[in-house]
Amino acid sequence: MWELGAFLAASPLLRAVGRGDRHPVLVLPGFTASDRSTVPLRWVLRGQGYWVHGWRLGQNLGPTPRVVSGLQARLEEVYGRQQRTVSLVGWSLGGIYARELARHRPELVRQVITLGSPFQLRPGDRTAASGLFETLADRFDPAFFDGALQSEADRPALPVPATAIYSRGDGVVRWYTCLEREGPHRENIEVRGSHTGLGFNPAVVVAILDRLSQREGSWRPFRPPPGLGYLYPKPEHFRAA
Fold first, then answer.
1. What is the number of structural domains in the chain?
2. CA distance 195 to 57
């Protein structure tokens, strides 16, 4: 509730950060959520000058065959409308989907931004949602597990720029399972807040707007806009970057 209140209070400021170039953005919800959960984020991004789309696959109850095939079709549809590469923003499990889409169709993807997505989970690691996820697992696409749920350490880096946003106070997933490996065109941005508030956390939205405002092919590490460094736990990191 604190994050939602801060988001509403900061909305005029958020809409003044980084002008958009009208490229397409596809926003994917977290586990058990739907497009309704991403309405505030999509509203800000759309008002800032992007063609923003929800996933239109209903409630996210895991990587079922319908979801896996539907995601690929949705990416192709969004790309086809403008013939421009698509920025993927994924919240929690939605971020894991986004990373898989980028691996399978890199020619359609401009960049990937994940919000509290535990793509570094290893066998035996647990989250607050593990019990429900395992209960539904017999409905999932087996091929998805052969790829997305492998250890990231055993997989090549994403072929597109990647930004991982995380919070040490997440409360649902362990923060270190959400970290991207260091390397070219890859970064981690720490914010303060909860897992369920990441989609409307002002620091998250500022970071997303900054990342989307970059010209394609000219990626640079994130630095908070002037006067907004206080939103981030480690402003010295950005001064040294």
1. 1
2. 22
> CA torsion angle for 175, 178, 181, 187 (degrees, to 10)?
-90
Beta bridge partners of 112: 88, 162
Query: To which H or E segment does residue 14 belong?
Result: helix 2-14
CA distance 14 to 115: 18
Hey, is 23 helix, strand or coil?
Answer: coil
Give per-residue pLDDT as tens, 161-210.
Answer: 999 999 999 999 999 999 998 889 999 999 999 999 999 899 999 999 99
The Cα-based distances of 143 to 9, 116, 121, 122, 146 in angstroms read 44, 23, 18, 18, 5
In the block, residue with structure tokens 């970064």:
187
At 165 the pLDDT is 97
Q: Do 124 and 75 meet the contact criterion of CB atoms below 8 Å apart? A: no
Q: Which residues pair with 189 in a beta bridge?
A: 165
* Helix, coil or strand: residue 7: helix
Q: What is the CATH number of the domain that holds 91?
A: 3.40.50.1820
Distance separating alpha carbons of residues 187 and 170, to the nearest angstrom: 18
Residue 54 belongs to domain spanning: 2-240
The pTM of the full predicted model, rounded to 2 decimals, is 0.90
Q: What share of the chain is helix, strand, coil (3-state, %, to 5)?
A: 45, 15, 40
Q: Is 122 helix (H, G, I), strand (E, B) or coil?
A: coil
In whole angstroms, what separates CA 223 from the centre of its chain? 18
Helix (H, G, I), strand (E, B), or coil: what is residue 190? Answer: strand
